[in-house]
Q: What sequence folds into this?
């Protein structure tokens, strides 16, 4: 959930277009209009120079992505969630300045959600709770504490005097989500244009399953309680208690936790930020590789720094259980990346479904290895690294010193040099850059995103962004190696957690 609702929240923002015709019309108009514009661009490119064609494609890609985000952001529900998932997709040909602008828009889509007026929620809550709010809560704050795509959060006090937060689903959002999920199939041709290598249909099916589950707060309460049990008594992670007896399908009640929000944490001294970053890494990677649980909403609005130094994690609606076979494949990818084993990496990518076998023969194995070390090396390759926001893509902020990185797909490559000097022939330099960019893009387009990987990749990418915003430093490869391979802990937090896990196993025995 975001840090809090926007101050600018006109009552009209609470209107949720639930009618099938109204919501389908928005998507249909978008698809039809962009389809015509894309066809016009392709026709015009037949008589343009290669440079002007590439420029026109980038302009059209940028316009399409921004219009998608704008339209979906107005609709809440699954439409907004689909827009948030765009943060996981590499957009073919989008220039870096537009990528930065898009990241800002995606952050707004995630965080700047105006709340629904309380009067629109009260009737739903009475139905869910079986009576007036006073029959369940001694006090209830009608001002929203936070707002998100499917529901919003209010503070309250139970009849027993416990401070709690109450997440309430927007009225009509379930019906709107069902329409959005059907409409998502209409977007597939547009998504394929801007991300040719993506298996858009599989992504849409995964979204359908995950978002449908996210609507069920009783299921979220079960997920929440399951993770709270895993971390009960943990030395540096806190998960709030969930009040199952007060929760329903559309209302979720959990313990209120006081703590510092992410923007406050970013102002702490570097040692505190490093420790906080390590806890974030250990929580998400530990849950994945130790417990087989991928959390799909890891943005920093979903955790707090408590007064005792623990970090409290919130919101467990978007979750997937990941099987041992798939996790072994991710371990194989990380191991091949660590060992610079290009052939092993190719086999692991095929085995996990990232690389269709029919595309593997034409793959440039060495270039793909360099791409993987640039994007996943921060957690796959041991070595002390500090994230700095100097590069455009946070996943290449920590490329090891001395190792040339081609940049993330869609990002312009570094200038070509000869004997350490920039070539005098600027035309030749531009031609070399275009060739390198084309090679990187061609390799990126060979890959797809298997359904099991949707939340896994989102988790890893968002955690990297969080570390970048903290300027956090550490041996991330060694830390994650504890969960990937069972390596011995190398930090004090790692030793504390190892003792906790050993104790928990003894208690269960």
A:
């Amino acid at each position: 959930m975001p840090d809090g609702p926007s101050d600018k929240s006109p009552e009209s923002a609470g209107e949720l277009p639930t009618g099938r015709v109204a919501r389908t019309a928005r998507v249909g108009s978008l698809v039809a209009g962009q389809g015509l514009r894309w066809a016009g661009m392709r026709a015009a490119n037949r008589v343009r120079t290669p440079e002007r064609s590439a420029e026109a494609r980038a302009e059209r890609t940028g316009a399409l992505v921004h219009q998608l985000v704008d339209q979906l952001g107005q609709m809440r529900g699954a439409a907004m969630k689909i827009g948030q998932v765009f943060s996981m997709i590499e957009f073919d040909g989008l220039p870096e300045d537009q990528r930065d602008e898009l990241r800002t828009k995606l952050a707004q889509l995630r965080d700047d959600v105006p709340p629904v007026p309380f009067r629109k929620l009260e009737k739903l809550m009475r139905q869910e709770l079986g009576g007036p709010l006073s029959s369940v809560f001694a006090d209830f704050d009608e001002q929203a504490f936070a707002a998100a795509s499917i529901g919003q959060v209010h503070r309250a006090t139970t009849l027993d005097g416990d401070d709690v937060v109450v997440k309430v689903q927007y009225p009509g959002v379930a019906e709107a989500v069902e329409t959005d999920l059907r409409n998502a199939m209409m977007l597939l041709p547009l998504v394929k244009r801007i991300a040719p290598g993506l298996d858009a249909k599989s992504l849409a099916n995964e979204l359908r399953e995950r978002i449908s589950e996210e609507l069920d707060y009783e299921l979220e309460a079960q997920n929440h309680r399951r993770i709270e049990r895993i971390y009960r008594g943990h030395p540096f992670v806190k998960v709030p208690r969930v009040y199952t007896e007060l929760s329903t399908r559309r209302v979720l009640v959990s313990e209120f936790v006081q703590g510092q929000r992410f923007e406050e944490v970013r102002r702490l001294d570097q040692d505190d930020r490093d420790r906080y970053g390590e806890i974030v890494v250990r929580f998400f990677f530990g849950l994945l590789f130790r417990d087989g649980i991928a959390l799909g909403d890891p943005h920093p609005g979903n955790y707090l720094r408590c007064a005792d130094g623990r970090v409290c994690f919130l919101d467990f609606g978007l979750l997937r259980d990941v099987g041992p076979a798939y996790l072994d494949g991710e371990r194989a990818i990380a191991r091949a990346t660590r060992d610079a084993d290009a052939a092993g990496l190719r086999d692991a990518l095929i085995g996990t479904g990232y690389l269709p076998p029919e595309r593997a023969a034409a793959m440039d194995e060495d270039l793909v290895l360099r791409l993987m070390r640039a994007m996943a090396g921060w957690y796959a390759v041991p070595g002390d690294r500090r994230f700095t926001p100097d590069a455009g893509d946070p996943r290449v902020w920590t490329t090891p010193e001395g190792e040339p990185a081609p940049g993330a797909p869609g990002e312009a490559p570094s200038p070509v040099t000869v004997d350490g000097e920039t070539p005098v022939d600027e035309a030749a330099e531009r031609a070399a850059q275009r060739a390198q960019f084309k090679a990187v893009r061609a390799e990126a387009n060979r890959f797809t995103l298997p359904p099991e990987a949707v939340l896994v990749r989102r988790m890893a990418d968002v955690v990297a962004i969080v570390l970048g915003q903290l300027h956090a430093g550490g041996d991330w490869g060694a830390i994650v190696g504890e969960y990937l391979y069972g390596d011995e802990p190398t930090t004090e937090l790692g030793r504390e957690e190892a003792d906790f896990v050993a104790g928990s196993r003894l208690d269960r025995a």
In short: Residues 11-111+177-213 form one domain. Residues 1-18, 391-424 have pLDDT under 50 and may be disordered. Residues 91 and 195 are 5 Å apart (CA to CA).
